[in-house]
Amino acid sequence: MAKDTMKAMVYRAAGDYGLMDVPLPKITEPDDVILRPTLNLVCTSDVHICQGHMATVTPPKIQGHEFCGVIEEIGPAVKGFKVGDKVVVNSASKCGECANCKKGKPARFCLTPGNGVFGGGGPDGAQAEFVKLPKGQVYMNPIPEGQTEEDVILIPDMLCTGHYGVNQVGLGLGDTLVVIGCGPVGMSTCLVARLYNPKTIIAVDVVDYLLEAAVKNGVADYTINSAKENVVERVRELTGGAMASTVVETVGLNATFNMALQVAGFHGRFCSVALFSEPISVPVMNMAVVKNLNIYMGIQESAGRDLLFEYGRLGKIIDPKFMLTHRAPLNDIEQAYEVFSKKLDGCIKYAITPWEDR
Length: 358
Hints:
The chain has helices at about 45-50, 100, 150, 155-170, 185-195, 210-215, 230-240, 255-265, 285-290, 305-315, 335-340, and strands at about 5-15, 15-25, 35-40, 60, 65-75, 85-90, 90-95, 115, 130-135, 140, 175-180, 200-205, 220-225, 245-250, 265-270, 295, 325-330, 350-355.
């Protein structure tokens, strides 16, 4: 009898998640695609979902929205792709037909019910042996010739989020950029920022190995451990009193949001690209209004995806593969969540390879 179940990482309830057997996905519509994931990444939002911090996600839900794979089966209406093609997939599904899709808005804003982030408010995710992509041709991207999965897997989510923050603050020549948080999103923000040639990039975090990695890999000029130093005073020192012209906050805590506003200079541009797990209280008058700050908020958009693919092809972007510090098969994904979420063993990003028969 043919196999009819597969292994998958499933969010079952707040704090209740893990590997389990689930039915194999099947093509039910002519534009469906069945993909065999060959590389997945564990994301902070996966952890937020599994801890019950994202009320818009209804369990049970297979996790995983950062992935590459090989097309295993394809519906008859899918054009431009074939079985065996290697692709990297956008982190959210979309219909391609609604008003927002036609305007080029991010897939997260698709108006057709059932679409959205894989493993979140959209279809089941890819931390499994197989994943179904509804209307797959709309958001699959062929892996460019000469590039590997590792070269491109960070583009649709991490690097596009960094690009969104950098783009919103209008980063350019002569700017000083402070990035609050130096995890995968913060590191990606620093990395993309290099494309815009700012004067100085300052990374802030409480984890020394992340700050060390930022300097070692050339994505930050200076680092500040906010658990050991006064961030405001150190930024004032590094900027000659002017403070930061641009700030991107990637953590999503009350303390880090307020810190970001404090280090911004007069007429500064500030963007938060974080997922918040707690309420934010800000003395707006003193921290923002009197400084005439421009404030933006949001997360990844696909607008920068093609640009980042092209920069990657031309070798004009700092190699992002240094963030892929850990790797294990799907069999060990529960341990991967533990190591990643607790920042153990120098982990920046945990890569998940296919299930292994043991």
